[in-house]
Amino acid sequence: MKTGRMIGSAFKGLGRNRLRTFLMMISVVIGIAALTMVVAAARGAQNRIMERVRKFGLDSLMINAGGTRETGVPAVSGPMTTLTVDDAAAVRREVKGVLEVAPFNRKPQTEVIRGDRSVTTAVFGIPPEWEPVWDWGASRGEFIDEEDMDKLARTAVIGETVRRELFKDADPIGETIRVGTTPFEIKGIMAAKGTSPGGGDMDNRIYIPLTTFLRRVANIDYLTGIKVRLTSVREMDQAVKEIGALLRERHKIASGIPDDFTVRTPDEVKEMAEEVAGTFNILLILVTGVSLIAGGVVVANIMLISVNERTKEIGLRKAVGAGRRQIRIQFLFEAAAVTVTGGAVGILAGFGGAWLLQKITGTPTAVSWESVLLGVVFSGLVGIVAGLQPANRAAALQPVEALRS
Question: How far is Cα 82 from Cα 121, in angstroms, rounded to an integer?
Fold first, then answer.
């Protein structure tokens, strides 16, 4: 029998048993839809990770107060007091390849009030260098300047989330807000930034002069961190070594004693985000694998039932000259046709599910050609593997015994 006739015969067999075909197909649709959503979620997570790294700055590194047992986990609780403004000046002055530094301190979970409205936000004390180091400044109004620093000015630049919560559609520039009990005049609105490398809302912040923060708001003399921008990405490794040596010397840390600071590079930020995303993706892949295995079992069982019910058809075909190979190919093709068709439907369903997932939960997804390729390949493999035993069983039937059954 020619290939074309075998294909036609396979589709006729599937068409005669539409309910059975549907049951085989729906199990594959569910598995491939889950696979497509997993791939879309994984690609979306990867894109978000790279976006966060870009926001951090590929040519930048962060110095945080306090040593760590592992990346991003403080070794001790409570405020870290080991970094100072003088440390930032020393890094700017003595480390090769440093373009600019931006020391800062922050006060999280601070109530900010305007009239009868309030918002809980983070207050950052920053210098004018924040703008070039972070490549981020005011979209309206003015940014913190040297005069604000010198005069310990009570001026503030607010993020978009704060503006929306406190002022809605009104123009906030020139208006007064209270940070705790201290009044501040709004001089600018920060450009919208979105989420931070750690996943926080970077627009739910208020920025005031660093000197004002240290002396009038918090009454402290230490920093939360120092962001350093380098002249080139190639300077990263050398800068990390020099900063480590410089700060250990300034802090009088003896040999063998752990650092009381942490230097974090873009690669470490990426690794932290990828570790979280990777754990999530592994769980999704396991669920998807179970779905595909279940789908394959359903297809195999229904195909075995089909072989049992079609023994006379198989015997008749063998009696008129069909060989084992032709019978085997027909049943394999039937299984593959069902699963590949189910795979195509599953891919479309997966794309729709990924879109809904992003809309409802905010989880980033990204549809790509890998989703289509994996869907087609896996659905085809499920069909071949699931159909192999039924096809071999059909091919092994003897014509006389098949016609008697």
Answer: 25
